[in-house]
# Entry
Amino acid sequence: MAAENEARILVEAERLLSTQAFDRVTLAAVAEAAGVTIPTLQRRFGNKEGMVAACGANIAARVEAQRGTPPVGSVGACIRELVDQYEREGALMWHLLRQESDVPFLQGLLARGRARHRQWVKTVFSEAIAHLDARKRRARVDALVAVTDVFVWKLLRIDLRRGRAEVEALVNTMAEAVARTA
# Structure
């Protein structure tokens, strides 16, 4: 029962965090949506920050499980996985990123996500950057992080209303072009 309660709480917390301002997501609202009491939520997570940290850990685990160790040399497959992840998590990520400067607590969670994304880029594009000196490698990684960022997905998918397959193709084309840059 405790594991089921925890799972429901985290699902509802993520749902609310993806649609409402951070300050409006209360323990009471999450408890009500999850069908538990506030004391139940507090026993498991302590406070709102503990609950949000648990949500962040869940998201990180899902991303890690999906991306895993990317196959070096298979950029297309890696971009497909990335876009799949953005299709599932992108709205929540975007919503939290928009609030980052107003909610200091989010800064650490989002910084860890950025670090994981940067490491993913270094792994996926390791063959394309291996021959570069440190300065050029860093600049190339920066550019690849930018073209594979959730902001690009949001621009193409949400703002420009491109289909999922088109977004994947565009991100792949941009990433491969940056990776090949002399």
